[in-house]
Write a structure and sequence with these properties.
The complex is a heterodimer of chains A (about 260) and B (about 350). Chain A has helices at about 40-45, 70-75, 90-95, 110-115, 135-145, 170-185, 200-205, 220-225, 230-235; strands spanning about 1-10, 15-25, 30-35, 55-60, 60-65, 75-80, 150-155, 155, 160-165, 190-195, 205-210, 215-220, 235-240, 240-245, 250, 260. Chain A is of the alpha/beta class and about 260 residues long. In chain A, the strands form 5 sheets. Chain A has a 6-stranded mixed β-sheet with strand order 6-9-10-3-11-12, sandwiched between helices. Chain A has a 4-stranded antiparallel β-sheet with strand order 2-1-4-5, covered by helices on one side. Chain A has a two-stranded antiparallel sheet with strand order 7-8. In chain A, a hairpin with a 2-residue loop joins β1 and β2 (about 15-25). Chain A is globular and about 50 Å long. Chain B has a single domain (about 25-45, about 65-350), classed as Orthogonal Bundle (ABC transporter involved in vitamin B12 uptake, BtuC), CATH 1.10.3470. Mean pLDDT of chain B is about 80; it is low at about 1-15. In chain B, a hairpin with a 2-residue loop joins β1 and β2 (about 170). The chains are: A alpha/beta (about 260), B mainly alpha (about 350).
Chain lengths: ~260, ~350
Amino acid sequence: MFSAENIVVRLDRRDILRGVDMQAQAGHVTAIVGHNGSGKTTLLRALTQDIGYSGRVLLDGRDVTEMKGWELASRRAVLPQASRVAFPFTVLEVVRLGLLTGAAGADDSLPSKALARVGLAGFEGRFYQELSGGEQQRVQLARVLCQVWEPVTGGAPRWLLLDEPVSSLDIGHQLQVMEIATAHARAGGGVIAVMHDLNLTAMFADHVVLLADGRCIASGPPSLVFTDETLSTAYGCSLRVNTTPGDRATFLLPHTAHRVA
Amino acid sequence: MVSLSSDAHVRLRHAVDGDRENRARACFAGLSVLLGFVSLLSLTTGASGISLADVARTWASGESLDTVTRTVLLDIRLPRLAMGILVGAALAVSGAVMQGLFRNPLADPGLVGVSAGAGLGATAAIVLGGLLPLAFRDFVGTYMVPLASFIGGWAATMLLYVVSTRGGRTSVGVMLLAGIALAALSGALTGIFVYIADDAQLRDIQFWGLGSLAGATWFKLSIAAPLILLALSAAPFLARALNALTLGEATAAHLGIEVQRMKSIAILTVAAAVGASVAVSGGIGFIGIVVPHLLRLAVGPDHRFLLPNAALLGAALLICADMIARIVIAPAELPIGIVTATIGGPFFLWILLRNRSLLDM
């Protein structure tokens, strides 16, 4: 279990997070959602030790600040929102960096498997800089997958922490990436993703953490969190949630929204 | 929908596209041969007209070399060659490490003020050294100038990093401008020391500006070599961390790299290599920027291969430059800094123009 207790983050004398608690279970896809500037990415960056915070972040009951860098690297991989690579690396060389410290260090075939997994088979020899933004995003996902390829090692789940993993992707690749995340969770691993798209979140997340103004205002399965009232409060506009006739899947059309003056 | 291509394994049996490791190894072998070749050439090039064939013939026939030949070879050309190899390797490797650290191909110790800082340290040591208490001077002894040069280089690198990095992101613009400011400041302070220096000290100081291997002796070598060798042997341990760092500091940390510690080691490495080089050979530019850049184009930016290849190519290039410096206006000599800048400058511009798309600044 990945959990955060009473996380407070202040940047430039402004409260970004004001005491957030969250829990993510292995085997589940946990989504962090909220309006722009609600603190989604900041919460993820606290979970990944990128920024200073007060409160505690625990991985299977252990405070992550007490774990070594290599130990954390073998337990969780992090996909940033956008990645610039400083030098002209080939795609293969970028993906291979995922093997730097992971437990699977020896398996040479992993980078190509991971590339095939994200739909980029045959891209090994291309230069990273020459790819489109969406392709770069998926190369980075392949690198992250390499780092925690086996969802469970030694009985312990391994985690994917994804910051807006589908933000620059077309709809086909959005589905593909969400399916990869779901498969990782179903195989026993853990997934925490910062999400922008509420429909994809409703489709794929098992657990949602809804942030507004640096506080967690609701958490639970999407069907419970995504209500007209909660979402309207969280996003500051009047929203109407719908369900499909057959399997009662939650969806949300912007057409039904009214701006609150 | 998630497609797992089944032929992925099959393809991997063969050399994979995008894998430049074999090319990098071949390059290493080629450069080793090249370095050996130019080293021999360098030993047999010079004003006194001794050729290696003569020496080999003398040795083969069992006679001993005459004193002049012996002196020229063992006490003039050999230490000069060794110095050229060490300094060339040090400059190229520290260029590559610094570019990796700043994640920018323009970060060169010569361009961003590290060499100027080292020069300031050396000048200060020459001029102020005489003012130190005698006991301390005896204690630090001949290591004082290289040590001061090292401290100057280290301080400049640290300052540069602190100024140009905020929140784990290094701003290229700030780095280059700060480097220019640092170099100017170091130059001004060096000027003050030049102003108050006496004649003997002036002759010592003048040497830094020009850059030359001419003063190489076994004694100087014994002072610079430990620092340079220490720095060069630390570099391979930085390679994996520098690779991770190309994705940014946060991602490097996520990959398990102890980023802060690694950065300190990298800065110390650069300072030691540049400081020691500047102390014995003055400011030699362009090796640190041209060599890593060329190699990145040839074998890719993977630092595990870039660093050792840079050491070899840097050494070979500097020896070639030194030979040119010795031949062009023989029996006089050009300062080697002029040679590296005259060849390196236009060459570097040419590389830039050809590869603008890949630079992605």
